[in-house]
Specification:
two-stranded antiparallel sheet, TIM Barrel, disordered N terminus, globular, 11 helices, nine-stranded parallel β-sheet
Length: 397
């Protein structure tokens, strides 16, 4: 099967619950190499194996984690907001009003913008502040540069602006940013050290959002594993996250999976699956594609020796145009189902409880590249003018 991908513009009180994973049916477990998130990339066949049925796998001993919220953990639903790719940019005060109207608990941006950070000052919305990929070599090679960055671009805005996470770059595992990957962890260490220098380490965590292309095996969820070529880097990065109480962040797009795989029922991706379409993996039952993709990531983290790290989904969404499946109704069903599922506190079969996700995106962006597909400008829940395409309340009220 193929899976499309795109790119976007420490907990305490954990409990571990061991269980024996029974045998289950699967077929081809061979890996198909990744392509760029800006192309219709190939991925492993695992995401479709249960739909086709096949050979038996041996029983495995795995751990299922139950994560209690720590002070660093964010739980709920927020939005990604791209600042530079609209021909008719919405004034920042209107953006903040839109975030408040939607009842988003957080907003994630991809690069520094002082005017936006000022606009969201005094508002009860957490901010994930992005650092551009191009800054990674500078920050990796010079701690003083990292300290200067925090001094100039973060410290002046806190605590009035509720910056909770700094993301150093975006999807450095993808070809368009791969040149920055070797220096990523060093840059993250310097940024965290600078955050510590200003006494902000309890308030602000440091991480990096990977694309789902970081996965080498993604189905069945219990077999989830990272690409071998990235494991040395990930071992270092995951240890850094564990040491600093920061979340692992990954971008997941069920739309891009079903768009090229007619074998996967659309209803399974839209939280509308019938009982016959539910998938079983040992003792776990999957009622939707998103849970399966999240749990494959959790299994991959466990395989590297980090079963208890908090996980946040940096990007997830459904477009409303440019593809037969990209309709307003499908987007409404997906995002409504996603938010309802998050706020139910059921979590995933592998990790019950709340999880933080950032919907891509708040607004349409008409200047986005359409290399991956003509749907790229239409990920917004709102139009460029801030008009809602469909109702979406990111709270349980």
């Amino acid at each position: 099967m193929t899976m499309l991908r795109r790119s976007g513009g420490s907990e305490s009180g954990r409990c571990l619950r061991p269980f024996l994973l029974p045998r289950w049916l699967a077929v081809d477990l061979s890996f198909i190499s990744e392509q760029s998130s800006r192309s219709l990339g190939q991925v492993d066949r695992h995401m479709i194996s249960l739909f086709l049925s096949g050979t038996m796998l041996a029983a495995m001993m795995l751990m299922s984690t139950c994560v209690e919220p720590g002070h660093a953990a964010q739980h709920g639903a927020g939005f990604n907001f791209g600042i530079d790719l609209s021909s008719r940019p919405l004034p920042f005060d209107r953006v903040v009003e839109t975030l408040q109207t939607s009842k988003a608990n957080a907003v994630k941006i991809f690069r520094h913008n002082a005017k936006f950070l000022q606009a969201v000052s005094g508002v009860d919305i957490h901010v994930v502040a992005g650092i551009a990929n191009e800054q990674i070599p500078i920050l990796a090679n010079d701690y003083e540069a990292a300290k200067g960055y925090i001094s100039d671009n973060i410290k002046p805005f806190v605590p009035a602006t509720k910056i909770k996470i700094i993301v150093v770059g975006n999807e450095a595992n993808e070809p368009y940013a791969l040149k920055f990957l070797p220096q990523l962890v060093a840059a993250m260490r310097h940024v965290h050290r600078a955050v510590q220098h200003f006494g902000l380490q309890e308030q602000i965590k440091v991480t990096h959002p990977f694309s789902f292309g970081i996965m080498g095996t993604s189905y069945p969820p219990s077999a989830g594993a990272f690409q071998d070529k990235h494991k040395p880097m990930l071992g270092e990065l995951l240890q850094f996250l564990a040491d600093t109480g920061s979340p692992f962040m990954i971008n997941i797009y069920p739309f891009l999976t079903v768009a090229q795989n007619a074998e996967i029922p659309l209803s399974y991706a839209l939280y509308q699956a019938t009982p016959e379409q539910h998938q079983e993996d040992g003792q776990h039952k999957y009622t939707n594609l998103m849970d399966a993709m999240v749990d494959s990531t959790l299994a991959a983290m466990e395989r590297e020796g980090f079963p208890n790290l908090h996980l946040e989904v940096g990007e997830v969404g459904w477009p409303t145009g440019g593809h037969a499946l990209a309709t307003v109704e499908n987007a409404r069903l997906f995002n409504t189902g996603l938010v309802k599922h998050i706020l139910s506190k059921k979590g995933t079969p592998r990790r019950p409880g709340w999880m933080q996700m950032y919907i891509f995106a708040l607004l349409d962006e008409d200047q986005k590249s359409t290399d991956i597909g003509p749907f790229e400008p239409f990920w917004g829940v709102y139009t460029m003018e801030g008009v809602p395409k469909y109702p979406l309340d990111l709270t349980s009220s």
